[in-house]
Amino acid sequence: MSYEHEEPEQPMQPGAEPEGRKPDWREGVNWGPREVVQGIALGAAAVIFIPITALLVAAAVGVDVCLGSTCTTESERAVTEVSLAATLPFELALFGIVVALTVIKYRSRWSALGFRPLALRRAWVPAVVVIVAYITVVVYAIIAESIGGNKFAPQSTLGEDVFDEKVFVVLAGILALGMAPLVEETFFRGFVFGGLSKKFTFLGAALISGFLFSLAHGQLTTLIPFTFIGMVFAAGYAYTGSLWTTIAAHFTFNLISFSVTVASH
Questions:
Q1: How far apart are CA 197 and CA 248, in angstroms?
Q2: Residue at 7 is within a domain
Q3: CA 238 to mean position of chain CA atoms
Q4: pTM (two decimals)
Q5: DSSP track, 198-231
Q6: pLDDT (tens digit, 9 = 90+) per residue, 193-204?
């Protein structure tokens, strides 16, 4: 009796993909549009509740947070700073909403939210996403300024008062470079885009999640460009099957924007 010699199976290298397997961002997604609607509703409630609570707490400890038309410069600065500080608990709440509606409710794996290794052969994708995103912003800004001057041009989401004190510049940097890429990509690409893909086509899910992503930035001037950028991010995520693609792209995009804004002040 003879036996054929079998080669032992080699362990997969980090960043490698199973041979012949196309990455699928929908793998393991067991939530759907209903949870997405619930998440958006809870996120909208957090947008209202957390800043108001922060302002009330600030007023209770003696901070001048006047919101009327006759406010002093100091009180307006205080409102800006309190609102910035409230962004941290809001980002944490947004991440908690995703965890509650996926990992806790359905025992979803983190990989279902996109936390899969980014294949080395697709490591170029984040750079392309960033380039396309900045081309989008530049082209839109040129068109907007030719139509209506600066009125329709995208503006920085950070108030000018933020850059008056170093501590708030540091806080803004932590939020823009640390929290925002991780939390916003988990929410809008991993959770919203992933959940909508259960009912909608790629284009439909990308468009809706991109539109919601642009709304979250709270500026009408960024509605069109950020919707498209959100769709580009969704395409990058869908192509690689890894959320680290868009987290890296989001971080790089914010790093460039934040560095330019700080340098200009």
A1: 22
A2: no
A3: 16
A4: 0.85
A5: TTS-HHHHHHHHHHHHHHTTT-GGGHHHHHHHHH
A6: 999 999 999 999
